[in-house]
Structures are given as C-alpha cells and as structure tokens.
Write a structure and sequence with these properties.
Low-confidence stretches of chain B: 1-26
Low-confidence stretches of chain A: 1-13, 30-42
Helix content of chain B: 25-40%
Largest sheet of chain B: 8 strands, mixed
Shape of chain B: globular
Number of strands of chain B: 17
Distance between the termini of chain B: 53 Å
Oligomer: heterodimer
Radius of gyration of chain A: 25 Å
Largest interface: A-B, 45 and 40 residues
Strand content of chain A: 15-25%
Number of helices of chain A: 14
Structural class of chain A: alpha/beta
Largest sheet of chain A: 9 strands, mixed
Chain lengths: 446, 436
C-alpha cells in the first residue's frame, strides 16, 4: 500500500489525475487489443486471473492467478489461494492458457547477414580467384555487438510463443560467441540474459586456404585447443615466476579460447549430420570441454553415442536431410520422403531412448519452426516432452534454470497466454509477457 | 535342463524360419556355404567344398559339412568362393579427399571423416570387395593418416574401422604435388615444391624438424623427471603435424607413397633408409619394373593399376606387364582401383594380369592375400583358412574370367550383398508400382 502511494506520488501526486490516467490507460489497452501487436505496456504489477496454467514445474492448474511485479513472477497458484495485490492491474485471462515463454536456444535473430559480393567484371572474377582468401575465423567475435533488433521480428517470434533466444554467429569454423536474449524490446542492453553464453564451432572449411577439407578442419580445431592449453600454461608460469622465462607472445585467437578451453565455459558444436555428432563428441572427450551439440537432426542415428556422452543437445526441427546422409544420396524422391516421414520423428525417437534435448528452430523461419514442432509431435513426440524441450530443457542447458523455463515464484516473468492448447494447429498466442512487459496480440473481433 | 533349453531355442528358430520368407532373421555371423568351388588362395582349389562359419570366423572347410541349428545355408554348386576382395588404394566413404592447401599436412586423419552413408560402399560390395584402404589424396607431399575399413554397409562408421591394420601415412611425389598439371593463376604464387627435387627436399626438411621436435620433448621429459626441475619449466608446444611425423620416425606409422617414375621411387626408398621409417607399399608405381632390384632390396611392395597407363606424362613409360613382371621378380604386388567406380570390377582388372603372364591364382592373389599383407591384416583375412574372418565373395564363374559376376559378398559371416535377393526386391518393387 505504501509502495503504491509512493509510486502514485511520483507519477502525479493527485488522485484525480491518477483516475484520469487509469481511464486513459484502460482506453488505450482496449484500443490496442483491436490492432494486433500494436501495443505494449510496462506495468509495475499485473494480475493474470482465471487462466489455466501450465507451470511445467508441476501439474497444470485449471483456474489460477499469476501475479507479476517488476518483471518477475511474484506469486502464482489456484485462484482461491492467491490474493491479488491492490495495486496490480487485473488482466482477465479467462479461456486463456498460460505457459512459460518458449526458448529457441539457437537462432541468428537480429543479425544482418552480409551477402558476399559477387564478381561483376572479368577482372574482378579473375582476382577473386587469384587473391588468396582471408581466413574466416572469429573466435573473439561478440555477436552481441552486431545485434540490430527490430520490433517486427520481435513480434513475429512472440506470435509463435518465443520469448527467449540464443543469437549465435554463423560464419567460419570458430564462429564467435553467442548471447542469450529476452525478446522484451529492441534495446540490446535491456535484452541480455547472458553475454557471452558460448563459443560456437562449425565443421566447415576455409576456401582456398588451410583448412580446406573436413579432416583439415578437425586437425585445425585440435591444434588450436592444444595451443590454448599451452598458451595458458605459459601465461600462468610467467605470472608466477617470470625470471628466466620468456614472456608468451600475445595471441588474440588463443586469448579468446581460454575461457572455453581452460575455464570450461560452454562450447557449442554445429552438428549437421550424424558423423558431425561423433566428431564433436570425440573433441569434447579429448579436451574435457563443457560441450553442447546443436543442429543434430540426425541425432536418432547415433542415440547410443549420445546416451553414453550425456552431452546437452539443441535439436533443430529442420527436417531437411543433410547432404552427406544416405537419405540425400538415393535420389530426389526418397530425399523428399525422408524429409516428410523420417526426419520429423527424430525428437520422438530421442524421447523413446530417454535422451533429453531442447528443440530449436535453427535454420528455419518462425512459421516453419512452429509448423515443424507440430510435425514432430505428430511423428510421436509427446506434447509434454515438446513443452519441456522448449522451456525447462533449454533453460537448463543455458544455465538459466533458476530464472527461466518454468512458471514459478521468483522467476523472470516470461510467459505466453494462448487461446487453446499450445500445440493445437489453430491456437493463437494472445498475450506475451517478457520480463513482465506485456505485449498484446489479440485477433480482431475477439 | 540344457537339452530342454536348446530344444526350445531350436523350436523357436524353426518357427522364425517358417515365418521369415528369407532366412535373414537367423543368427548373424553363422553360415554354411555348400558345394562351392573354393579358391582359398592359400592352397589349391577345392571343388565341391563346404565352408562353415560360426560367429563370423571360418570354423571348418571340407565336404558334406552339416549346418548347426540357426545357421543359414547357402547352396553354391557351380559357383566360385574366394576371399573377399581387398582394395589397397581408394578414397571412398570419406567426407573429404585432399587437404591440398599446404604441402605438408600429416596432422589430418581420414578416420575423422568416415562417411558410412557413402553409396560407393555398396557399389564396392557388388564387386565382391570387403575391405578398402581409404586414403588421403595426392595433392600434397605429405597428406594425412589413412584408414582401413570393412565395407559393412548399413553399420555405423566406427564399426567399419579395421584397428588391426597398419596405420599408414600418405606421401605423394611427382606431378600432382608439384602441381605441374595446374593452370597457374596470375597473382597467385606457385606452391613449393614445384619440382621432384623440391618434393624430396621438403620431406627431408620436415623429418629433420620432427627429429628436432622429438629431441625437445626428450629434453623436457628429462628435466621434468630430474631431481630439481626448474620452477618455470615449460613443455614444448604440442604440434600435431610434427607429432605425426615423429610417429613415423618412431615406427608407429607406415609410409604409403603415391609415386610414378623410377627415380622418385628410388629417392623415396633412400629417404626411408636414411630416416629409418617403414614403407608399407608404393602406390601406382608405373615404373616399378625398372627398379625391381631396389624394391627387393628394400622389401617394399607395390600397389598398381593393371593396364591404363599413359594418361599423363609421368605415366608415359608405364607398361601393362608391370604387375606381372614385378610378381615374377618376387615383389609383393596388389591391384588397386583408386576409384569408387573401378572398385566394383577390381576382379576384372586383376584378371587382365593373366593375359600379361600370371596364373589365375597369382592374379587372384593380387586383390586378396597380397593386398592383406600390404595392409598388415593377412593374419585375419585375405585367404580362406580355418580361423580367419569369414570375408568372402561368391562368383558365378571363375573370378578371373572376363564373364564372371559377383553373386554374393559376405563380411564376417554376414551377407552384405546378395545379387539374387536384390533382383527379386527390384522385381517386387516394380510389380507394386505397376499395380498402382
């Protein structure tokens, strides 16, 4: 009560003005609900009432209340057990279902992908061949610095229920360092949950320079890891006793790798086919890394390896068979068949093997992401497992399980309200709260 | 009790056999091949012979053998049973061939890029091939560490690797590595080495570096284990490139060198002698017939094509009698495919050697036991002998005949290719399609 008055005083200091403001806000809200995506409100406190709640951390609550204050979940539970604070703005959510905001732990959101310049004249063409290429290695790249968030993108991801993403770099073998973002605004600083999160590595090649082959790439990665260990040892020895020890030559490449190779921050390996998974697992084992595998749409084929390794998985619902795969090697008809029938069952097969994983929309547009999640469920993945794979599992892999992934008291208020079951084809996301910031997406006529 | 159990199992297997249209469901690795003309390679042909395989191993060779419960029986009368064909120089089942950007790349390992999904594995099986030495390419002087695979089509990559085989390091000499057949682009420098002298010199240079590297580590180990090691003692940098070359010098790796002309082969053998490394075989070796004394003195065999010489300058003095002549001189000769297509008709390639003077048996040896010896696996495969792994191929005519065809390919007692079965499946699929 005291707090409320204090805040009111800050805003107006006058009761009449406050009432007028309240009416204005209400009017604005009514208006905003009629134009989808147009309005967003920062409220100090909200009470979502009469909604069904899927907390993920426990059984569903048929009719519940969620109290949100300062971007956090203050309380939630059965309607009769939760007292609504007087200052909370009540949001009637009857007929809606609340879920934790979904997490896609691998995207390239908000990045402007630079198109490679194509040679135009014969001279340019010739020089593009005769000039040795520049190495495309970016171990020290903070992708956070490249973010160009756009409201439109934000809203289109909200509409499929996603409130948190990992934005990862996408060029080179050592691609750089990713960031975990809450989709709460277009202000990068405000969005950050973890910066940096992980080092991303892809089994690709350089063009025209070393390493130009896959086996060269594996050797290149191993050598860099060994060099990092040696560089770090040298630095430490030099710090403790510099007498009669030549100082190590400063190496920005290896400096960037120290947190990941020595201090065991997460290293994410892009696994485009089943053999990539094995390659990554061998590297994780050899260098005792805190490894994470992403991509992995052929993961079911190496289930025994994954079980043994217990390495966290970010499984994309991109069902296109990898080029090296047998499913791509027997003609276009069989490739299409595999894309429609075999690859959608990847997640279901992993579930059957008791392998936990997070689902991502890596390589997909937001609409395909949602469509393919539904396809994965149709192919046998249980909706409960799908929900976990989009909430609590990615939160755990990101080391944010105390803040995100379930609807629990004290956690970040990332939640979505849908009309209908989340995994029903016709279901629409009606309201989204990210860090307690409300976004309305109610359809016209509702 | 035991009798009851075995009877129950027998009954269950019997029921299974009735249920299954093919006997594929029966215990894997157990086979009885009956009434074949066996060409064991290690001895004279056995007409009308049986081979019994238990758990993937050849248990018995003889006549009128009976199959134990659960073993599949293959009637092979009129057919020829030979050891599975071994190709000692291919590049199949790999997601990459050359790390050709630098002259020296021994740090790369082909075992890192095995692709068990490569359809070339099946192509090879249709020609009776059961094992391949799949290698780094010849774009640079020192390529990478090769790998030997069994062509267990449909099995995961790690199950293909033959760990018992010699670990080999690919070297290449001559035109490919000096890039003499490449158009030089303006502005881009010619890669060193550009001559045969250069290729020889760079190998010596790198091996000397490797020796130095070994000395550095020895010195470090000595200091580390001394009574009062210096407080700031730092180990040398682990260099994967030199580490591999050090393994060659330590005798843990064998060299395989792509070489064409007599001089470069002799030079390479001299290098091997100078540095004391082992050479498993020389590959292609078109001019081997000129240096048989040197090869015999070094105890080094060759892995060659049969009769397609003169496709480039350094192959100009190749002769179709190379394999036959070198065999007669006592050199260990194998015939390789170096191709995901030719691999399916390697038996035809070997068969041509009969025209150039070898017996059928000698020709067959070049793609079986000789190849196994070059890969260091002749104690496991390469001939049909009791105790060896049951890697076998069944041909409808003598395998060195021009009219022969591979009917069945078996690895460790499992049938990986069955021509009749595939034809049947194909007909059924066509019938289903027609019915729609």
């Amino acid at each position: 009560m005291k707090k409320r008055i204090g805040k009111l005083n800050l805003v107006s200091g006058n009761r009449k003005v406050f009432l007028l403001q309240a009416v204005a806000i209400l009017l604005f809200m009514i208006l905003s609900t009629s134009s989808p995506g147009a309005g967003e409100e920062v409220g100090p406190a909200y009470a979502l009432v009469n909604c069904k709640i899927f907390p993920v951390s426990g059984p569903p609550i048929e009719k519940g209340t969620i109290i949100i204050r300062d971007g956090l979940i203050e309380a939630l539970g059965y309607a009769e057990k939760i007292k609504i604070p007087e200052d909370a703005e009540i949001i009637e959510a009857g007929g809606l279902t609340a879920y934790p905001g979904l997490i896609s732990a691998h995207t390239n959101l908000f990045l402007e992908i630079k198109q490679q310049e194509q040679p135009q004249t014969p001279d340019e063409f010739l020089s593009s061949f005769s000039q040795p290429s520049e190495p495309q290695e970016f171990p020290d790249l903070q992708i956070f610095k490249e973010l160009k968030p756009k409201k439109q993108t934000l809203e289109s991801w909200h509409k499929i229920g996603v409130t948190t993403v990992v934005t990862a770099p996408g060029r080179g073998i050592f691609q750089g360092q990713s960031v975990v973002l809450n989709l709460n605004s277009d202000q990068p600083n405000q969005m950050v949950l973890k910066q940096p999160w992980a080092l991303h590595i892809n089994f690709t090649t350089e063009r025209g320079i070393y390493p130009s082959s896959l086996m060269g790439t594996v050797a290149f990665i191993r050598q860099k890891f060994y060099d990092t260990l040696h560089y770090d040892l040298h630095k430490k020895k030099y710090l403790s006793s510099p007498a009669f020890l030549k100082r190590p030559e400063y190496d920005p490449f290896l400096e960037a790798l120290i947190p990941f190779v020595v201090d065991k921050k997460p290293v994410v390996f892009q696994c485009n086919n089943q053999e990539d998974i094995k390659r990554a697992l061998r590297l994780i084992e050899e260098f005792k890394l805190k490894g994470v595998l992403t991509g992995c749409n052929e993961a079911w084929r190496v289930a025994n390896h994954l079980k043994r390794a217990g390495v966290p998985l970010l499984v994309t619902v991109d069902f296109r068979p990898p080029t090296a795969s047998i499913y791509s090697q027997q003609g276009e008809a069989l490739r299409k068949k595999a894309e429609a029938e075999v690859f959608p069952a990847n997640a279901a097969r992993l579930q059957k093997e008791n392998i936990t994983f997070a689902l991502t929309g890596f390589g997909l547009s937001e609409s395909s992401f949602r469509k393919n999640i539904l396809a994965a469920i149709k192919a046998g993945l249980s909706p409960e497992a799908a929900l976990k794979a989009l909430t609590v599992e990615p939160a755990r892999i990101l080391g944010l399980e105390r803040q995100l992934g379930t609807l629990e008291m004290g956690k970040i208020a990332n939640l979505i309200l849908t009309r209908g079951d989340l995994f029903d084809e016709k279901t629409k996301v009606i309201k989204v709260l990210v860090d307690g910031i409300l976004f309305n997406y109610e359809e016209k006529g509702q | 009790m035991k009798v009851v159990i075995s009877r129950t199992i027998f009954f269950m297997i019997f029921v299974l056999a009735l249920l299954a249209p093919e006997s594929y469901l029966l215990a894997a690795g157990n086979l009885l091949i009956k009434n074949a003309t066996i060409l064991p390679v290690s001895g004279p042909p056995i007409p009308g012979g049986d081979v019994l395989i238990i758990d993937g191993i050849i248990k018995q060779i003889g006549k009128n053998l009976s199959a134990p419960a659960g073993a599949r029986v293959i009637e092979a009368s009129g057919k020829y049973l030979i050891p599975g064909i071994i190709d000692t120089h291919t590049h199949l089942a790999l997601s990459g061939t050359n790390e050709g950007t630098e002259a020296i790349t021994p740090e790369v390992r082909m075992a890192d890029v095995i692709n068990a999904d490569d359809p070339a594995i099946f192509t090879a099986l249709t020609g009776g091939v059961t094992m391949v030495h799949t290698m780094h390419g010849s774009a640079n002087v020192i390529g990478g560490v090769n790998v030997v695979l069994k062509l267990k089509w449909g099995q995961p990559s790690e199950k293909l690797v033959v760990k018992e085989a010699f670990p080999t390091l690919k070297f290449a000499l001559g035109e490919n590595v000096k890039q003499s057949n490449r158009a030089l682009l303006p502005g881009r420098p010619q890669r060193y080495p550009a001559t045969r002298m250069g290729a020889n010199a760079i190998i010596r240079r790198e091996l000397l570096r490797a020796k130095d590297y070994m000395t550095q580590w020895e010195r470090y180990e000595k200091l580390k284990n001394s009574k009062n090691p210096p407080p700031n003692l730092l180990p040398p940098r682990k260099d994967l490139r030199l580490e591999t070359l050090a393994d060659l010098l330590r005798g843990k790796l064998y060299a395989r060198a792509h070489a064409y002309v007599a001089t470069e082969m002799v030079e390479f053998l001299r290098l091997a002698k100078e540095f004391g490394f082992k050479v498993a075989a020389l590959d292609h070796a078109w001019e081997a017939y000129k240096i048989t004394d040197e090869l015999l003195a070094a105890g080094v065999g060759i892995s060659v094509f049969i009769d397609n010489w003169a496709y480039k300058m350094e192959a100009a003095e190749g002769i179709a009698y190379n394999a036959a002549y070198c065999t007669r001189r006592g050199i260990l000769v194998s015939i390789n495919s170096d191709s995901s297509e030719r691999v399916r008709r390697l038996f035809n390639e070997a068969g041509k050697a009969v025209k150039y003077g070898l017996t059928q048996d000698e020709a067959l040896k070049m793609i079986t036991i000789n190849a196994a010896r070059q890969l260091g696996v002749d104690h496991l495969v390469g001939s049909i002998e009791v105790g060896k792994q049951a890697d076998l191929a069944l041909f409808d005519q003598h395998p060195m005949s021009a009219y022969t065809r591979c009917e069945m390919t078996i690895i460790e007692g499992d049938v990986y290719f069955d021509r009749q079965q595939i034809l049947k499946n194909r007909e059924e699929a066509a019938a289903r399609k027609g019915g729609n």
